[in-house]
Design goal:
Layout lengths: L45 E3 L4 E3 L4 H28 L3 H22 L4 E2 L4 H15 L12 E6 L2 E8 L4 E2 L5 E3 L4 E3 L4 E3 L4 E3 L4 H33 L1 H7 L2 H29 L3 H6 L19 H9 L24 E2 L2 E2 L3 H17 L44 E2 L12 E2 L12 H4 L17 H7 L5
Antiparallel strand pairs: 1-2, 3-8, 4-5, 5-6, 7-8, 9-10, 11-12, 13-14
Helix pairs in contact: 1-2, 1-4, 1-6, 2-4, 4-5, 4-6
Length: about 475
């Protein structure tokens, strides 16, 4: 019976889920494949094991070196060591094994490590250096010639010229040179060694020296005890019978005889270089020879052979200046999720932008050379980071010249007023922070891709030598 009153109806509402409304957050969306920096490295090096191993492009002679060491040592351990261990002492194969492992370890360490490659200048830094050169030499005029690409610095009372590298777009620091085979500027460049398949520079010179020195001992060791083996067998069965019983000994003697002279001579030459704190490149050019002048001397020598050897072999190993295994961040910012019809940036997005700024700065430390200018912090325009919320990360106070209260974030050189300025950016509370779409180009301060150059701050101090 209908009484004119509407009966209650059970209404069912379907909940609308807006969590996956953004196409960037769908589980089946295709994410952009992240590349590492070694995949776009500008030099001619080869990389293996995801960028952990760095070698030169021409590695054929390096494989020949490994084959010669392995074959000669293998024949010695297989044909000579059993006889010597039973007739003389078991210490012979033990000593030979230790020398062999040390030689291979030093060879692989010198071949697979970064020799001290200097990063190339960014386009902005290259343009800034060009402006400095033109301003110092006065560009213009009908008879204008390109200015000289050299700078001079004084190191321990000795004037040293810094040459401009047209490939890397930097003034090379003292003792650095550009390798034409690897197409890189290498710090404290010694030479390019095809036998180890890599350049020999500041970061792998000690391993190269220990390799050739231990290889000299191993070659002499094998040569001496192979001769001993043949003599002992000849006393028992005769010389011809001894050669027939151990034919591998003949091959070992021939290989060791022709290689021992060059290896021992190379070890002696580098021992002289280490004792005088020189490089092969400087010795060949005669950079510190007295023939260039009576007052010409080596400013890097400590004046003591023992001190020079300790500095080259026992000093701290400098870190690599190239972040070859670092990730290449995407250029486009991630869109923020929509909420209540308005676009707001959540707290996590502000933290991600803050991490993009602080991470490269914390990773790199400036490198100061003797005779070069010291970077001084520039007074910040604003106050401290008081506008950040209590849960927000702040810039590290240990980094000089950084401020987030004003409109300038710069690393300032006391002599040159041409730092990398990052401006037109204010820090406000997370509730008032607009999205990347509203900020436009002002968000470029926190673009991770634009911060790659900040990772190489340790080398940018070397570029600042152009202002000396």
């Amino acid at each position: 019976m209908h009484l004119g009153i509407d009966e209650p109806r059970e209404c069912q509402y379907n909940q609308i889920c807006t969590h996956n409304s953004s196409p960037m957050e769908t589980p089946h969306s295709k994410r952009r494949k992240v590349k590492r920096k070694w995949q776009i490295f500008p030099g001619r090096n080869k990389f293996y094991c995801d960028g952990r191993i760095m070698m030169a492009k021409q590695t054929g002679v390096f494989y020949l070196t490994i084959v010669l060491i392995l074959v000669t040592s293998g024949l010695f351990f297989a044909f000579d060591c059993p006889f010597l261990a039973s007739n003389l002492t078991p210490a012979i194969p033990a000593i030979g094994g230790v020398l062999f492992l040390f030689v291979m370890g030093m060879l692989l360490r010198a071949s697979f490590s970064d020799p001290g490659v200097l990063p190339r200048a960014t386009p902005e830094e290259a343009a800034d250096v060009e402006r400095q050169i033109d301003a110092a030499n006065g560009a213009g005029g009908p008879g204008y010639r390109p200015p000289p690409r050299t700078r001079e610095v004084v190191i321990n009372g000795q004037t040293v010229k810094l040459k401009y590298c047209f490939t890397c777009k930097i003034f090379r620091p003292p003792r650095a040179s550009h390798c034409s085979l690897c197409d890189n500027c290498v710090e404290r460049f010694d030479h390019h060694c095809p036998w180890v398949g890599n350049c020999v520079g500041k970061r792998n010179y000690r391993f190269f020296y220990l390799f050739i020195l231990s290889l000299s001992f191993l070659t002499i060791f094998i040569f001496a005890f192979v001769i001993t083996h043949v003599i002992l067998r000849s006393n028992r069965t005769g010389f011809l019978s001894a050669l027939k019983d151990s034919p591998a000994s003949v091959l070992e003697v021939v290989v060791c005889f022709f290689s021992v002279w060059s290896i021992v001579g190379l070890s002696g030459f580098h021992t002289y270089l280490i004792s005088s704190n020189q490089t092969t490149n400087e010795d060949i050019k005669g950079s510190w020879s007295s023939k260039r002048g009576k007052d010409n001397y080596n400013p890097y020598s400590y004046g003591n052979i023992l001190t020079n050897c300790c500095a080259a072999l026992c000093g701290p190993l400098p870190p690599s200046l190239i972040d070859r295994r670092g990730f290449i961040e995407p250029d486009t910012p991630q869109p923020a999720a929509q909420s209540n019809g308005t676009n707001t940036c959540p707290t996590t997005q502000l933290q991600s932008h803050m991490a993009a700024v602080t991470t490269p700065l914390l990773h790199a430390q400036p490198v100061l050379l003797g005779g070069g200018p010291v970077l001084q912090p520039k007074p910040s325009v604003g106050g401290p980071c008081s506008a950040l919320g209590p849960g927000q990360p702040s810039l590290p106070s240990s980094i000089p010249g950084l401020s987030c209260g004003g409109e300038v974030l710069a690393l300032h050189d006391s002599e040159n007023h041409c730092p990398h300025h990052l401006h037109h950016q204010h820090f406000i509370s997370p509730e008032e922070t607009p999205c990347a779409a509203h900020l436009g180009h002002h968000m470029s301060l926190y673009d991770p891709a634009s911060q790659d150059s900040l990772h190489e701050d340790s080398v940018r101090g070397l570029v600042k030598l152009s202002s000396v």
